[in-house]
Amino acid sequence: MTKFKYYFILIITTFSLFSCSKNDSTEVEPIRDFSVQYATDITDIEEYLKTYTIRVVDHPGFTDDQDVTYTKITDAASQPSIWSYLNNTTFPKLLSRDVLLYDITYKVYYLVLREGVGASPCNVDGVLASYKGDYLEQTIASEVTTLTATTFEESKYPQQMLSLYSTIKGWSEIFPKFKTGSYSTNNDGTVSYNNFGAGIMFIPSGLGYYSSGSGSIPAYAPLVFSFKLYEIQRLDQDGDGVPSYLEDVDGDGYMNVFETGVLNPDDTDGDGIPNFVDVDDDADGYSTKSEINNPATGLSYPFADIPSCSGNTTDSARLKKHLDKSCH
Ligand SMILES: [Ca+2]
Ligand SMILES: [Ca+2]
Ligand SMILES: [Ca+2]
Ligand SMILES: [Ca+2]
């Protein structure tokens, strides 16, 4: 009898759970598998590269210089595809960068219209940039699927620096491949930019907004950004007095952030916290800020003048004391 009672309760419970989920009208789609979505995205991006052509404004000194318009190819003979610039020896030049994130290697294509002549940001610096963003999606009309690109944002006159540390991953991976230009102040106080880096990046959704989308950008949409890099701002994320780009130990322009246990070339003491966000880079118990302080002036040494443990300040290959655990 007790046994029967137990089964009865179990059946009721099971049924009520089942009917509950059945009546649930707001079903949430589980987040898609990243590798499956990436395969879809890269197919769409490559289709876009092969079926669209660009027109670039050449108007030095004016705000529309290097503006880009995209057009779907209707005449292959007169309209070169973006793909036709792949590994070109002159500009425009279509290149790609492999980005490893959560065990997936994303290929990010970027078109270099112009490299620029100034300095490159590292991947955690601030950038003053104008940009136009499009998202890609497959739309179905009359049972025909078509890849479409929709512009969601255009920022022609940048007012503020954007930190690559907090933008989408795609931006922080591609901006370091470009340089700023030169600028001059006009009589009316406005600034003219010349010879700045300009390009287009093609970002899989896993390095963009992925399942969340953003504003009018749908979930899982690959993004196409044309951009111009006007100025950079060197940031110091850990506030130790050494700008982050000078905490890039292997000098590749990227502050790597890896999971603990993975050898990170930008993490001197190997504690899993890369130097640019580690206040004690060599784990000697003394903060970097205190180690690079010049007792004669009470100020931080300029980076190039930070001495080694033995006091050497001229050997360019010396290990600076804030990275040497044997002194402080
Ligand atoms: Ca720093
Ligand atoms: Ca690095
Ligand atoms: Ca560290
Ligand atoms: Ca230290």
From TrEMBL:
This is Uncharacterized protein. It comes from the Bacteria. One of its GO terms (molecular function) is calcium ion binding. PROSITE patterns: PROKAR_LIPOPROTEIN. InterPro entries: PPIase_dom_sf, TSP_type-3_rpt. It comes from Flavobacterium degerlachei.
